[in-house]
Amino acid sequence: MLLQIEFESDIPIYLQIKNQIIRGIATGSLRLGEDLPSVRQLASDIGINFHTVNKVYTQLRQEGWVVVHRKSGVMINPELKVEKNTDYIASLEDSLSNITAEAFLRGVTKEAFFHIVEKHYAGYIKEGRE
Amino acid sequence: MLLQIEFESDIPIYLQIKNQIIRGIATGSLRLGEDLPSVRQLASDIGINFHTVNKVYTQLRQEGWVVVHRKSGVMINPELKVEKNTDYIASLEDSLSNITAEAFLRGVTKEAFFHIVEKHYAGYIKEGRE
Questions:
Q1: Is B40 on the interface with A (CB under 8 A)?
Q2: Residues A96, B117: contact at Cβ < 8 Å?
Q3: In Å, how far is A43's CA from the nearest CA of chain B?
Q4: Which of A51, A102, A3 is nearest to B91 (CA)?
Q5: Would you say the ipTM is above 0.90?
Q6: Which of A12, B2, B92, B112 has its CB surrounded by the most CB atoms within 10 Å?
């Protein structure tokens, strides 16, 4: 797994890692059931505090993206089937409300916005995900 | 201006306020040139620390959404014309990369995603914004 961390970014490091793992699952660069490095290994690879990695793995586990076994460590949930629940849809609506408002005011047309979404969706894989 | 703050939310309060002001401009509930409450007034209305409001206004000013006059206070930038710069487009691409990946994995189809975007764009006003 190749992570690109921008230490100068406004986005917290834990969130950069978490986002990249979720994107990795969607694009197929991380396979279901694939092992992830241990907390200490990943922390050492990136050169960050292991508490930061711990926070990422804890959130990923709570949200169902990874499973943790005492012996075999952390892996992408082999039976990933994240639910489309009402809470998630509400938070998606809310995020898009903020993002589209700013995009609109900055002159990004709806069509240009669609184009970006379309491009990302085109990179996501469906195989073995149903 | 009616702000709805969720004190229990994971989203920091300053960001909730900032997002709602930007959305207010996009939807027209805040007019260009409209006065905003003073930092202390708004802090007192919501019941939060004035440093939090100060952070919101500072960011909004830096990004060009509001202007601050020593005497007349803070108002929505009457000559709002926010630039669509390369940095902004890069950050929009990045946000949408994360959001669409999660939406896809949670079973939100591209069409359903478009539908949400469409709905928000339909609420934004163009009058007097060119």
A1: no
A2: yes
A3: 22
A4: A102
A5: no
A6: B92
